[in-house]
């Protein structure tokens, strides 16, 4: 990576009045979170599922909760525990500093369900989790359209077998099985009301900005939700992706990991005279 690219990214940010932070799974890699890109990486993280030849798309589905709920909750329970104990990498703090220096601040648009932006101190009402959140639950029966926090659920998981040992979470209204409020593969039962509200706040915020810039971190093309969002806003795009960095229009392409790129941009902003609160 050459310094001029970081300098150009910093120049785009300096000329903006607000920052749109769009993030995919690659944002969490520097925090030690697994990247499920392809079965190789997924099975490395979950050897029990590798032995059973269960692909990510199979376990990350409502059908898995209907057929084998202890296995499905073994997978999602392990992830919930992992995300709860994971500390966001320093790049999150750099993004907060950069955002605080801009008049309009920032808004996060992410396909990640891990809650790491909230954990890093970003404001809840400035985050849109387009695929939902593992930190919230819903009834498999769609009972009352209720979406509830998962705070009281502490899954005890046999990691070697990827099986839930503790009792399955039950709906307080009907007693049915609770599942994560996460948009899965082949998912027609996901309750998206919480995400819809977040998206409405994002659209309202966008109308208050005049010169926003998008900084996109670790969003791949396999599930292109975040990339599509970044590209259709019609504003300069800083794309950070070690394997798929190309951009279709104005902006900067950074072929490196999230923390490396954010550190370089942060340093370039300081070199250009930016000061952070």
Q: Short description, anyone?
A:
With 277 residues, the chain is of the alpha/beta class. It contains eleven helices and eleven strands. The mean pLDDT is 93.
Polypeptide structure, described:
This protein is of the alpha/beta class. Helices cover 37% and strands 17% of the residues. The chain contains 11 helices and 11 strands. Helix 1 packs across helix 11 and helix 7 runs parallel beside helix 11. The longest helix has 17 residues.
Q: Mind summarizing the main beta sheet?
A: 6 strands, parallel
Strand content: 15-25%
Approximate helicity band: 25-40%
Give the terminus-to-terminus CA distance. 28 Å
The run of helices and strands is HEHHHHHHEHEEEEEEHEHEEH
Neighbour order of strands in the largest sheet: 3-2-1-9-10-11
Structural class category: alpha/beta
Shape: globular
**Tally of strands:** 11
Uncertain regions spanning at least 5 consecutive residues: none
Mean model confidence by pLDDT: 93
Q: How many whole angstroms does the radius of gyration measure?
A: 19 Å
Q: Figure out the total of helices.
A: 11
SSE blueprint:
Blueprint: H1 3-14, E1 18-23, H2 38-45, H3 47-51, H4 56-59, H5 62-67, H6 69-85, H7 90-100, E2 106-110, H8 116-119, E3 127-129, E4 132-139, E5 147-149, E6 157-158, E7 163-164, E8 178-182, H9 193-206, E9 212-217, H10 225-232, E10 237-240, E11 251-254, H11 258-271
Parallel strand pairs: 1-2, 1-9, 2-3, 9-10, 10-11
Antiparallel strand pairs: 4-5, 4-8, 6-7
Helix pairs in contact: 1-11, 7-11
């Amino acid at each position: 990576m050459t310094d001029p690219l970081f300098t150009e990214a910093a120049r785009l940010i300096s000329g903006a009045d607000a920052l749109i932070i769009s993030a995919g799974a690659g944002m969490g890699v520097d925090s030690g979170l697994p990247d499920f890109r392809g079965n190789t990486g997924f099975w490395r993280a979950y050897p029990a599922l590798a032995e059973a030849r269960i692909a990510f798309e199979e376990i990350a589905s409502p059908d898995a909760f209907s057929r084998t709920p202890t296995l499905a909750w073994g997978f999602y329970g392990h992830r919930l525990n992992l995300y709860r104990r994971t500390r966001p990498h320093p790049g999150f703090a750099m993004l907060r500093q950069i955002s605080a220096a801009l008049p309009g601040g920032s808004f996060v648009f992410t396909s990640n369900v891990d809650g790491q932006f909230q954990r890093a101190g970003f404001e809840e009402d400035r985050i849109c989790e387009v695929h939902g959140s593992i930190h919230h639950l819903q009834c498999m029966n769609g009972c009352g359209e209720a979406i509830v926090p998962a705070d009281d659920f502490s899954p005890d998981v046999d990691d070697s077998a990827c099986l839930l040992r503790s009792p399955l979470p039950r709906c307080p209204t009907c007693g049915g099985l609770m599942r994560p409020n996460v948009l899965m593969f082949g998912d027609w039962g996901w309750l998206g009301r919480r995400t819809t509200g977040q998206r409405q706040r994002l659209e309202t915020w966008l109308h208050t900005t005049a010169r926003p810039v998008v900084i996109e971190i670790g969003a791949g093309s396999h599930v292109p939700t975040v990339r599509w969002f970044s590209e259709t806003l019609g504003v300069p795009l800083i794309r950070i992706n070690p394997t798929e960095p190309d951009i279709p229009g104005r902006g900067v392409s950074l072929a490196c990991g999230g923390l490396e790129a954010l550190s370089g941009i942060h340093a370039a902003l300081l070199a250009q005279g930016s000061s952070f609160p």
